[in-house]
Design a protein that fits this description.
Strand content of chain B: 25-35%
Number of helices of chain A: 13
Mean pLDDT of chain B: 80
CATH architecture of the largest domain in chain B: 2-Layer Sandwich
Distance between the termini of chain A: 66 Å
Order of helices and strands of chain B: EEEEEEEEEEHHHHEHHEEEEEHEEEEHH
Largest sheet of chain B: 8 strands, mixed
Helix content of chain B: 25-40%
Strand content of chain A: 25-35%
CATH superfamily of the largest domain in chain A: FAD/NAD(P)-binding domain
CATH topology of the largest domain in chain B: Chloramphenicol Acetyltransferase
Shape of chain A: globular
CATH topology of the largest domain in chain A: FAD/NAD(P)-binding domain
Low-confidence stretches of chain A: none
Radius of gyration of chain B: 27 Å
Oligomer: heterodimer
Chain lengths: ~475, ~425
């Protein structure tokens, strides 16, 4: 690489070093391409620094605390002390390890990583600006945009990092807030709300619709909302945040319900978790033929090609669902297509996890969406209270529900319960492998374990369940 | 820039042979102008463009076999500079792999010219594993077009390969060793287009439907004299009055009385489908091979109309001008071998029909009538039928009705609706 006015080039320029970007860069390099990866900060993206990983570390800590203080009737009693600062320091350690791991992998596979910002000058050139302000133009054969997304703001609630927080700010708090107001009962609101409640916060969630996670089967939500109630979370349904004001270092949020009744919620902090917006600015898209959809995400096809034949897009910027798991796969698809291989993002099903208590995980169609798509279906449900495995763990809340066509082809599986996030992979694999109910029911599952519930639910759908 | 693709022309057609380019690079073309002639399994079709513009690239050369959905040509739109296609540059081997797709080098493009590719977040509902789906892409096969043979209709790797190779590959048959001196005396003709379709359909028909052939003769002495008499009148009206028109009419009458011959079999649902409409396919010998134009609603047409339509469709088939819609929808088929020769034949059923009638040459034959030998005009008939759907008795009864109407053409005229 030569900086200055001399133009240099590469086969593939990847912009953004999150899960989509670094995967694309490594795979393209493995396939013989000369790859440059440009990242503003450190490698890892939202996933490593501001999303998946940090939240799961803190949720794990909160769950350990909760389980120790609420061991149920298994004959154990304990008291727990924790130091939130140390929990956070542990988090930094893990994140550093992951970041360094990605950096090492890029080096190992010959990806040239540049810390800086890239902006397209045309469909085959981009200007890369280093942190010190020097810049240089790079010519590329293909580019992969993986610039991700950022937390969305709502009018009147601009993030200030002090009282009005986004999810990243909330994860970065070094002290557990006594009172926390959360705007939005989507998956981030529920996950962080539950976590802070377990750590001792008094949590109030404001939600504009009449229930949590409107995209999920209401049966799943019922299990989670009961537990949230038990944890002391207050949820204000059909309510919208109207005004914010700071008062004696506290955040006061005026909310209004659907009948126009106003009330005030006071917290040490307000967390706004209403979704994400794509990072589509300052990367010179106007100098290319890349087109955006109505919400600002880049339009892509099955091969993750944009409307500009040389440019690809992966991850959050290529449209929802904004999940690292999607980005990881898309990165490989784009790299393979660029290398002339027959890659395509052709997955039959996309798993979605919510790290609530208990966890929710779904893949494919639920009952309502399957009917809406015109399928004649059969369903089978198996509650964890009938599972030996769940009983041994004292985690009997929740169930597995299987939705299949009448001929047995599995269309979707929904799980609410302990470790649902881990159980869902078998469900995803089943759908991806075009499995029928008999396939799932006929697979031997170790006993006594939670995944047995998947086979049992499949048997229930076949009308011959044994354990209920 | 827009691409003109080889459109789905229906009838399960998946590929075609590029016969002729009707445009060349640099031509300015109008909406609906034909860009190429493609020979499908059924007919030669002209592929029109839905956009106006300047032809910037043609994909493929004459004689190439193209898949439905593949890009035929690219057009640059008004205000858009021509995109210069460049062949993939072969770089030195130790540096990098060579991309297989040709890149397009951009000269200059005005901002309003946008060719959005379909935004895709469609759920993939193809019943196949990831590795099989990948294989399909590798082989350039549209997996959504394949009916899977696996359990529950899963598409298997074998289905993909079979689909790609189209005719069931005679992999176990090794080509016979040919002595070099005879090789020069042999000619090899690639099987494609109509020949390929005939082969595939006949193999499928003969190996799925248990064929039984029922043979009989019709005394058509009176029909012959009736035709001789009316031929002239018909000619004055510009119609060539053939025996075939009478036979189509007689068959229609017989089909009405014996509905199990005007049917098809639905193996998925395990049902016999009786059809209360009468579309009769007529096998026509063309230079390319056998084609079967279909005369629709024969029960609603007069013999004159049937004669006229048969002639028109046969001619269109021979000159390959026939519309695809005129080649489908058959409920029963008649093959008229008699016009060429032969005593008897065993026709193969034309799917999805369950029966086919072979019509042979009318000959003067000695026939015993009331103890006396007379010379009569005799028409030999052969009916192949699908024994899954009907039995010999039904077929024989159908033949009796048919023969009765051919013997006494007045009955036919009475049946004109």
């Amino acid at each position: 690489m030569v900086m200055g006015d001399i133009e240099t080039g590469c086969d593939v320029l990847v912009i953004g070093g999150g899960p989509g970007g670094y995967t694309a860069a490594i795979r393209a390099s493995q396939l013989g391409k000369d790859v440059i990866l440009v990242e503003k900060y450190d490698l890892g993206g939202v996933c490593v620094f501001r999303g998946c990983i940090p939240s799961k570390i803190l949720i794990h800590a909160a769950n350990v605390i909760y389980d120790l203080t609420n061991p149920g009737n298994i004959g154990i009693k304990s008291s727990v002390e924790f130091d939130y600062k140390k929990i956070q320091l542990n988090r930094f350690g893990i994140i550093k390890k992951l970041r360094d791991g990605i950096t090492t992998l890029c080096k190992k596979y010959g990806v040239q990583v540049i810390k800086g910002e890239a902006s397209f000058e045309s469909s085959d050139k981009a200007r890369i600006t280093l942190p010190d302000g020097t810049n240089s133009t790079f010519k590329f054969e293909n580019a992969i945009i993986a610039t991700g997304s950022y937390p969305q703001e709502i009018p009147g609630f601009a993030f200030d990092g002090k009282l009005i927080l986004n999810s990243n700010d909330a994860l970065g708090l070094m002290k557990v807030p006594d009172d926390l107001v959360i705007i939005g009962a989507g998956y981030i609101g529920i996950e962080l709300g539950t976590m802070f409640a377990k750590l001792g916060s008094k949590v109030k969630i404001v939600e504009s619709s009449s229930r949590l996670l409107t995209r999920f089967d209401p049966e799943l939500i019922e299990v989670v909302s009961q537990k949230m109630k038990k944890l002391g979370l207050e949820i204000y349904y059909n309510s919208r945040p109207m005004v914010f004001r700071a008062e004696k270092n506290k955040a006061v949020v005026t909310i209004s319900d659907d009948k126009g009744n106003k009330s005030e919620l006071t917290g040490d902090k307000v967390l706004v978790a209403v979704g994400v917006s794509p990072n589509n600015k300052d990367i010179g898209l106007e100098n290319t033929r890349v087109e955006l959809d109505g919400r600002g995400f880049i339009k892509v096809d099955e091969k993750r090609r944009t409307t500009d034949p040389k440019i690809y897009a992966v991850g959050d910027i290529a449209g929802p669902p904004c999940l690292a798991s999607k980005a990881l796969r898309e990165g490989k698809v784009a790299a393979e297509v660029i290398a002339g291989l027959p890659g395509a993002f052709d997955n039959r099903a996309m798993p979605l996890n919510v790290y609530s208590d208990p966890e929710i995980a779904t893949v494919g169609l639920d009952e309502e969406s399957a009917r809406k798509e015109g399928f004649e279906i059969r369903t089978g449900k198996f509650p964890f209270r009938a599972s030996g495995g769940a009983m041994t763990m004292d985690k009997t809340d929740g169930f597995v529900k299987v939705v299949a066509k009448t001929n047995g082809e599995i269309l979707g599986i929904q799980i609410v319960g302990a470790n649902a996030s881990m159980l869902i992979s078998e469900a995803s694999h089943s759908i991806e492998m075009a499995a029928f109910l008999e396939d799932l029911a006929g697979t031997i599952h170790p006993h006594p374990t939670l995944p047995e519930a998947l086979a049992e639910a499949a048997e229930a759908a076949l009308g011959k369940v044994i354990h209920i | 820039m827009v691409d003109i693709k080889f459109p789905d022309v229906g009838e399960g057609i998946t590929e075609g042979t590029l016969v002729k380019w009707l445009v060349k690079i640099g031509d300015a073309i109008k909406v609906d102008q034909a860009v190429a002639e493609i020979e499908t399994d059924k007919a030669i079709v002209e592929i029109p463009t839905s956009k106006a513009g300047k032809v910037s690239k043609l994909f493929g050369k004459e004689g190439d076999i193209l898949k439905v959905g593949s890009i035929l040509a690219s057009l640059s739109l008004p205000g858009e500079e021509i995109l210069v296609p460049v062949e993939p540059e072969i770089k030195s081997q130790e540096i990098k792999r060579v991309e297989t797709t040709p890149e397009i080098k951009h000269v200059e493009v005005s901002p309003e010219s946008k060719a959005p590719e379909k935004p895709l977040e469609v759920p993939v509902r193809v019943l196949a594993t990831p590795s099989t789906r990948r294989l399909a892409r590798e082989l350039g096969v549209d997996i959504s077009k394949i009916a899977g043979s696996g359990p529950g209709g899963r598409v298997t790797d074998e289905d993909i390969k079979r689909f790609q190779e189209a005719p069931p590959k005679p992999s176990e048959v090794t080509p016979p060793e040919v002595a070099p001196e005879t090789k020069a005396l042999e000619e090899r003709i690639p099987i494609k287009g109509i020949r390929k379709t005939i082969g595939e359909r006949m193999v499928k028909s003969l190996f799925t439907a248990p064929h039984v052939v029922s043979m009989d003769e019709a005394d058509v002495t009176e029909l012959v004299s009736l035709r001789e008499k009316e031929k002239k009148t018909a000619e004055e009206k510009g119609v060539k009055l053939t025996y075939l028109a009478f036979i189509v009419k007689a068959a229609t009458v017989a089909l009405k009385q014996h509905p199990y011959l005007n049917a098809s079999l639905d193996p998925q649902k395990n049902e016999i489908v009786l059809k209360h409409y009468y579309n009769i396919g007529i096998a026509v010998d063309t230079p390319e091979g056998l084609m079967v134009p279909v005369i629709k609603n024969t029960d609603q047409k007069s013999i004159m109309e049937l004669a006229k339509e048969t002639e028109k469709l046969s001619e269109e088939a021979r000159t390959r001008k026939i519309k695809l819609s005129d080649l489908k929808g058959n409920t029963f088929t008649i093959t008229n071998i008699g016009s060429i020769g032969g005593l008897f034949s065993t026709p193969i059923i034309n799917p999805p029909d369950v029966a086919i009638l072979g019509v042979h040459r009318i000959r003067d034959m000695p026939v015993v009538i009331n103890g006396e030998v007379k010379i009569r005009k005799i028409l030999p008939l052969a009916l192949s039928f699908d024994h899954r759907v009907l039995d010999g008795a039904q077929a024989a009864r159908f033949m009796n009705t048919l023969i009765e109407h051919l013997k006494d053409p007045d009955l036919l005229l009475l049946d004109v609706t």
